[in-house]
Amino acid sequence: MIELEGVPELIDPVMVAAFEGWNDAGDAASGAVAHLDREWKGEVFAALDAEDYYDFQVNRPTVFLEHGVRKITWPTTRLSVVRIGGAKPRDLVLVRGIEPSMRWRSFCNELLGFAHELGVEMVVILGALLGDTPHTRPVPVSGVTSDPDLARTMDLEETKYEGPTGIVGVLQEACTHAGVPAVSLWAAVPHYVSQPPNPKATLALLNRLEDLIDIRIPLGELPEDARAWQLGVDQLAAEDSEVAEYVQTLEEARDTADLPEASGDAIAREFERYLRRRDPSAADPSDGSYLRDTSGGPRAPKRKPEPPAEEPPTPEEPGDDSPEG
């Protein structure tokens, strides 16, 4: 355990968390937190004790050599802090780890203990699920919360999901019971191209996070990686007539469902994001088989154009109609 000593007093801190595993289709959510940590040069200040929460036969430690000395890296969850510069500086507490194997309530209580000591004002948990969404269209991202007041003031969905859940759902409910405002952002990843990484879904989560907490995130090479990813999937899909036909069907369904989104509000949101990115004072970037569904991660409902308000159960087949969340 790394102690909290040495952590400076934080400015309007928001905790942003993501966990590898069932809640992280295409590694989109963990990739988003890793991007924040890398771009703002996060400094680790705490790590949860791996012995308390992980089954090492499920998440095995790794051995590596450092200057000829063998060392072991244990699977765990680490916390780091980054400071966002600009006209209105603020801090992010980044939580990145693996979905725990056991003692989930204690795991959440320990994270909330850190949040309380650091004065965290809100917790944002990132997740990604498998859905019937075409890779050629913008990635759907849903923002959900268990707090009716937060849903109203921040234009979020109030979660109504019932069914199996993962650590994202458990942590969100723990925050609610502790009186800590909490939001989950879910990106839908095409189930027919579920293998990581998925930079397009990672980019969509970061864009939605920008809007949610009013910051500017330096994106680096991520937009170009997202374009290259889509081009690669385009080429692979074109080689299989059945996949190409299926993608076209998904496109038609998505376009029909999204017609109401071609509204003034949607255009205004995109224009505001564009203006923020033109403003250099908004933030200081120097701070701080491929088309097969082989993932066991959560799936979005087949007939709903947007991902659900919680994590879904493990899918049986790409086209199944099992409930999700």
TrEMBL record:
Renumbered residue ranges of the record's region Disordered: 273-325
Biased composition (Acidic residues): 313-325
Top-level taxon: Bacteria
InterPro entries: Proteasome_assmbl_chaperone_2, PSMG2_sf, Rv2714-like
Pfam families to which the protein is assigned, alphabetical: PAC2
Gene3D superfamilies recorded: PAC-like subunit
Positions of transmembrane segments: none
Record's protein name: Filament polymerization regulator ParJ
